[in-house]
């Protein structure tokens, strides 16, 4: 064979002609014996894996995380153990509701999903660019996402469904206020913060636990896009954010974020004025100030989009010792749903794909399954307990930190129905006059598409409980009035 790189079939046979299929005679039909042609067409038909039901459109980058402040008194996580320690990481940014080819510059939360390749296995922090979420119990998630997707009859986006659901789910008020603010359409993926959103548990080497919330603060600053400009860009360059991120990194203009945490003493959770596990709430900074942890820098573009971004399987279930789940009901559902989505999309052995593979040893008794392309554990025993000394053993020091629970098994809501005080603080105390005006305009623009009776009134009532000025401002722009009984 030639020393030059030569074209082959998938089984390695040299290909003689990649331009002309084999035909019976010069003008005759194509022969089934052209196995290269058959393989080429058949593989092409199988190029797509199912797109993610949510967060389908994404952009990814590699980088590193460096610890800049000692937090070892709060967590024994090895990758956070000392100042100066660097850990390779990968991030996938995404929109939530659109399909794989949808436009980047839409009003939608952005996924902010970070995979840290630590020496104790992968730690994934699968957050968003908003510190809160629309709902607080995973049981509502499929219904919620149905309203964000397409109408079952028309296959069109359905503004009635969106506002019907939100108006009947007032816990969404905080998130939709954030979403319709200037932050709802980020200028670029580099100009937005990331939040773990949920509360997590950190445990130190003495077994002492605290509750923690993560904030990745953009070193580029937070900047939004004017909605009219965003609409135009969506039409002219739907991949605007993806392109901006790729080009910035390619040009050596590496984006970075400072990771900060809020730490809540374990016992505070019982009496804190907000349920700390309710993902529709933040912890006000005045109660739990931000503590710096480190810096995340993105300095390498993926070499291959499908291999590294489409096949990236991030999951909130990927913990390392020293970081654990909280009882947040939304998080608890996600612990199952994310890995399950990847099993469906890219198979039972997706953790072994290069982008997902831990950089520390992976030893367990999981065997077989589709696309097992490593040694499948070789001749080693595949069960436990066993009497072999050289098989992987449990490490009791890595058991979860125990916590007490009590009460009845029941389907119950969170204790508090205060869906109003935190969006009120955002509207009244954080936003200035111009931001409030733009928020009101953005809400009115979106709600102007609602035609189904009762939805606008119900939502104005919700807004009124946040702040009368918000409800009245939106009502005026919609040429209506807030329901009369509210003013009494
Ligand atoms: P603070 O005044 O201490 O913090 C307000 C925070 O809001 C800022 O630190 C900033 O957080 C964020 N922010 C600033 N401008 C805007 C904006 N235009 N739109 C959205 N967020 C903005 O008050 P509290 O901590 O008591 O929070 C008050 C309200 O601020 C909350 O109810 C919540 O809606 C919002 N908020 C609070 C956060 C928190 O974790 N406490 C985080 C983000 C928003 P950042 O530096 O993270 O951008």
UniProtKB/TrEMBL annotation:
Cofactor(s) listed: heme
List of catalytic residues: 55, 128
Chain positions recorded as heme binding sites: 338
Keywords per UniProt: Heme, Hydrogen peroxide, Iron, Metal-binding, Oxidoreductase, Peroxidase
Recorded GO MF terms: catalase activity; heme binding; metal ion binding
Catalytic reaction(s) noted: 2 H2O2 = O2 + 2 H2O
Listed Gene3D superfamilies: Catalase core domain
Gene Ontology cellular component annotations, sorted alphabetically: cytoplasm
Domain of life assignment: Bacteria
UniProt-listed GO biological process terms: hydrogen peroxide catabolic process; response to hydrogen peroxide
SUPFAM superfamilies (UniProt xref): Heme-dependent catalase-like
Pfam family, one: Catalase
Stretches for region Disordered: 1-26, 374-399
EC numbers on record: 1.11.1.6
Annotated InterPro entries: Catalase, Catalase_3, Catalase_AS, Catalase_clade1/3, Catalase_core, Catalase_haem_BS, Catalase_immune_responsive, Catalase_sf
Catalase core domain ranges (all copies): 8-392
Family the UniProt entry places it in: Belongs to the catalase family.
Name of the molecule in the record: Catalase
């Amino acid at each position: 064979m030639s020393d030059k790189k030569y074209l082959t079939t998938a089984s390695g046979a040299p290909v003689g002609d990649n331009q002309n299929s084999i035909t019976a005679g010069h003008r005759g039909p194509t022969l089934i014996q052209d196995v290269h042609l058959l393989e080429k067409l058949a593989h092409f038909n199988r190029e797509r894996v199912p797109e993610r039901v949510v967060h389908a459109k994404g952009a990814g980058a590699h980088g590193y995380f460096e610890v800049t402040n000692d937090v070892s008194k709060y967590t024994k996580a090895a990758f956070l153990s000392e100042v100066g320690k660097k850990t390779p990481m990968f991030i996938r940014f995404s929109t939530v509701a659109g399909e794989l080819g949808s436009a980047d510059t839409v009003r939608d939360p952005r996924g902010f999903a970070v995979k840290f390749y630590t020496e104790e296995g992968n730690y994934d922090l699968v957050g968003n660019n908003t510190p809160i979420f629309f709902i607080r119990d995973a049981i509502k998630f499929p219904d919620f996402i149905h309203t964000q997707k397409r109408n079952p009859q028309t296959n069109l986006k359905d503004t009635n469904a969106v506002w019907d659901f939100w108006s009947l789910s007032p816990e969404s008020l905080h998130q939709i206020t954030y979403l319709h603010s200037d932050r709802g359409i980020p200028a670029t993926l580099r100009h937005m913060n990331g939040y773990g959103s949920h509360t997590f548990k950190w445990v130190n080497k003495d077994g002492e636990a605290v509750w923690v919330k993560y904030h990745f603060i953009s070193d580029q600053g937070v900047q939004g896009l004017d909605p009219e400009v965003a609409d135009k860009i969506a039409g002219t360059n739907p991949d605007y954010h993806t392109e901006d991120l790729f080009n910035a990194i390619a040009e050596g203009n590496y984006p970075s974020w400072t990771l900060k945490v809020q730490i809540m003493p374990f016992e505070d959770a019982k009496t804190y004025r907000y349920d700390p596990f309710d993902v529709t709430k933040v912890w006000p900074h005045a109660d739990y100030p931000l503590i710096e942890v480190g810096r995340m820098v993105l300095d390498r573009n993926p070499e291959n989009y499908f291999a590294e971004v489409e096949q990236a399987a991030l999951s909130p279930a990927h913990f390392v010792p020293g970081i654990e789940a909280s009882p947040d009901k939304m998080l608890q559902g996600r612990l199952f749903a994310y890995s399950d989505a990847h099993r469906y999309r890219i198979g039972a052995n997706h953790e072994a794909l290069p982008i997902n593979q831990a950089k520390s040893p992976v030893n367990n008794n999981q065997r077989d399954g589709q696309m097992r392309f490593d040694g499948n554990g070789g001749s080693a025993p595949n069960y436990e307990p066993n009497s072999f000394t050289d098989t992987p053993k449990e490490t009791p020091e890595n058991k979860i930190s125990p916590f007490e629970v009590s009460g009845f098994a029941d389907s119950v809501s969170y204790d508090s129905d205060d869906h109003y005080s935190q969006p009120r603080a955002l509207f009244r105390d954080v936003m200035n006059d111009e931001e409030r005006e733009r928020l009101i305009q953005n809400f009115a623009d979106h709600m102007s598409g609602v035609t189904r009776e009762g939805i606008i009134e119900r939502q104005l009532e919700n807004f009124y409980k946040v702040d009368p000025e918000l409800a009245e401002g939106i009502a005026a722009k919609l040429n209506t009035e807030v329901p009369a009984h509210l003013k009494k």
